[in-house]
Amino acid sequence: MSWSSVALGILFDLPHVIATAEDALAAERLSARCKLVSGDFFDAVPAGADLYLLKQIVHDWDDERATQQLRNYHRALVPGGTLLLVEMVIPPDNSLSPAQAMDLNMLVMLGGRERAAEEFRRLLDEAGFRLLRVIPMHSPFSVIEATRI
Fold first, then answer.
1. Which fold has domain 45-148?
2. Which long-range CB contacts under 8 A does 56-59 form with residues at least 24 apart?
3. Per-chain mean pLDDT for the chain
4. Which of 30, 86, 127, 138 is 20 to 30 A removed from 97 (C-alpha atoms)?
5. Catalytic residues
6. Residue 82's CB: how many other CB atoms inside 10 A?
7. Are 98 and 88 in contact (CB under 8 A)?
8. Where residue 6 falls among pLDDT bands split at 50, 70, 90?
9. Domain boundaries of the chain, sorted by first residue
10. Predicted confidence band of residue 1 (pLDDT cuts 50, 70, 90)
């Protein structure tokens, strides 16, 4: 496979984060495959991607702010595109898991929260996505796959 056939990624984050990323990408020889873009996802995100991957982002925010940022991803995503969220998911029966401890931490420290799959479904619906599936990982995290409708 040639480099020209490899997908291009965009690392999008706040300006102070992007300012530190260039050296790390160069050290991993990824500079040619990853564009650095700074901004604020509450305002807008780089448009035209067929996939967005957010790891431990939605849990930082209450439902209103989480929905606001998800709507921005929805506007930017190509029709039929995919949104992947990597988050802890509270079990449907609320059985003991690392998600409950993190939920308490998020509430106290940031005002955010961990959510159950049905709560993610509601947020995604409100933002214009359809939840396709929640894939548990061999870790405290799950991958939440949604599509732009």
1. Rossmann fold (3.40.50)
2. 56/86, 56/87, 57/85, 58/85, 58/87, 58/115, 58/120, 58/123, 59/87, 59/88, 59/102, 59/106, 59/112, 59/113, 59/114, 59/115
3. 91
4. 127
5. 59
6. 17
7. yes
8. low
9. 1-39, 45-148
10. very low
Whether 113 and 107 have beta carbons less than 8 Å apart is answered as yes
How far, in Å, are 16, 18, 136 from residue 104 at the CA level?
28, 30, 21
Helix segments in 8-97, DSSP class H: 15-27, 63-76
**pTM recorded for the entire structure:** 0.89
pLDDT tens digits for 125-134? Answer: 999 999 999 9
146 CB contacts (<8 Å, ≥6 apart)?
82, 83, 84, 85, 124, 129, 130, 131, 132
Region of residue 80 (phi > 0: left; psi between -120 and 50: alpha; otherwise: beta): left
Helix, coil or strand: residue 52: strand
